[in-house]
């Protein structure tokens, strides 16, 4: 982003948003297959609407994972989100499973054979980004947008706020001065709620989840604090609007503060570079910034289906770096094997760690003890410095 003075806005959506329900189900399917076989191949999309869930896609994995097991995984995901409403209920929704075997044409390009290493699962470009705006090395607008909704979700799941529904959205606009975020100029939160609550009550339920998330002194003016601006949000989730896997790719990444290659993450196993290479690009960018080699860093990777090596590695530190960017790009390739196999093994991605990524961003999270969010570690700092 610019180094001048400007306003910048990012949005987030909760786990109960229709598109995020679909992302969660698709990633639950990925986890189901990887639990059965770490080498399983999965590309599964989900559609949700009023009391209906449709799964479609291609897989290669254990025959023991039947359509009944996929249906059970979908229902469990919806139950965990918290949908027990007349128009969308984890137990009563109709689930249709249209999942079949992976194309042999795709498989032969991806599989290792003879002297051929494992190839990328698709062609495409992937971006990673990091900056020093927050401790998580994420852009501040998307980071705080996520945190507001996470706070509301914790209150709902714990029972502290019984009047909240699963579906919600947030939007945070920050004032930047000399390229640094200084305060919020407006905050928008729309949250599904019980019919008995009026809008003043909803506003006061939401308020502390904004004020306690934003840094001290950052709260927007009262006139710019918008809660349920339509005036009512009782009907929500897939009953209020259809959802699809992969429709919230900017929410999933950097909130528009950095480029996006266009590929969605959810529903894909880690041989798909749309997912794994985007994780690798974030990992590299975050370690560059954590190493104090730049204040901000954008990395682009490019791949061709069936080809193991990246076609290009591009680094842009937006004039904030201490090293030549071409030299840095070579150092990153020395510090980490960026083939699909190398990424998967370095970040230990062939594990059932994906359902948890489906809401509140794939980046800016805390690495889990079981290997979840491994791409958020800063353990490559020394290797990058040594390679320069």
Structure commentary:
By secondary structure, the protein is an alpha+beta fold. Helices cover 31% and strands 24% of the residues. A 4-stranded mixed β-sheet has the order 1-8-9-10, with helices on one face. A 4-stranded mixed β-sheet has the order 6-3-2-11, covered by helices on one side. A hairpin with a 2-residue loop joins strand 8 and strand 9. Helix 1 packs across helix 2 and helix 8 packs across helix 10. The longest helix is centred in the first third of the chain and has 19 residues. The mean pLDDT is 95.
Keywords:
single chain, 388 residues, alpha+beta, four-stranded mixed β-sheet, 13 strands, 31% helix
Percent strand: 15-25%
- C-alpha-based Rg, rounded: 21 Å
Number of helical stretches of at least 4 residues: 10
Oligomer: single chain
Gross geometry: flat
State the helicity in percent bands.
Answer: 25-40%
Order of helices and strands: EHEEHEEEHEHEEHEEHHEEHHH
Question: How far is it from the N-terminal to the C-terminal residue, by CA?
Answer: 26 Å
As residue ranges, the low-confidence spans are none
Number of strands: 13
What is the residue-averaged pLDDT? 95
Structural class: alpha+beta
Characterize the main sheet. Answer: 4 strands, mixed
Q: In what order do the strands lie side by side in the largest sheet? A: 1-8-9-10
């Amino acid at each position: 982003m610019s180094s001048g003075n400007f306003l910048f806005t990012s949005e987030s959506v909760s786990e109960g948003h229709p598109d995020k329900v679909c992302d969660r189900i698709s990633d639950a399917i990925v986890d189901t297959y990887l639990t059965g076989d770490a080498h399983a191949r999965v590309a599964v999309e989900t559609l949700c609407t009023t009391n209906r869930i449709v799964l479609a896609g291609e897989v290669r994995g254990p025959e023991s994972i039947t359509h009944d097991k996929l249906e059970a995984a979908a229902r469990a995901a919806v139950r965990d989100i918290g949908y027990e409403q007349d128009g969308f209920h984890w137990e009563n929704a109709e689930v249709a499973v249209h999942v079949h075997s992976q194309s042999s044409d795709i498989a032969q390009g991806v599989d290792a054979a003879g002297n051929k290493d494992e190839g990328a699962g698709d062609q495409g470009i992937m971006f990673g980004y990091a900056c020093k705006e927050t401790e998580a090395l994420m852009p501040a607008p998307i980071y705080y947008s996520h945190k507001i909704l996470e706070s509301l979700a914790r209150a709902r799941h714990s029972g502290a706020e019984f009047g909240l529904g699963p579906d919600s959205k947030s939007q945070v606009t920050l004032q930047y001065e000399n390229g640094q975020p200084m305060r919020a100029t407006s905050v928008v939160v729309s949250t599904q709620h019980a019919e008995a609550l009026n809008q003043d009550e909803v506003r006061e339920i939401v308020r502390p989840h904004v004020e306690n998330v934003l840094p001290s002194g950052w709260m927007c003016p009262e006139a710019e604090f918008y809660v349920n601006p339509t005036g009512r949000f009782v009907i929500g989730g897939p009953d209020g609007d259809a959802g699809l896997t992969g429709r919230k790719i900017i929410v999933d990444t950097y909130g528009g503060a950095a480029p996006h290659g266009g590929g969605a993450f959810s529903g894909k196993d880690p041989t798909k570079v749309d997912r794994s290479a985007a994780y690798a690009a974030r990992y590299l960018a975050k370690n560059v910034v954590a190493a104090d080699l730049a204040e901000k860093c954008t990395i682009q990777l490019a791949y061709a289906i069936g080809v193991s090596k990246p076609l290009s590695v591009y680094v842009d530190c937006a004039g904030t770096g201490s090293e030549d960017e071409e030299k840095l790009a070579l150092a990153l390739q020395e510090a980490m094997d960026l083939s699909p196999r190398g990424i998967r093994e370095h970040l230990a991605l062939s594990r059932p760690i994906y359902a948890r990524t489906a809401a509140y961003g794939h980046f800016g999270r805390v690495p889990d003890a079981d290997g979840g969010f491994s791409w958020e570690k800063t353990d490559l700092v020394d290797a990058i410095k040594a390679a320069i």
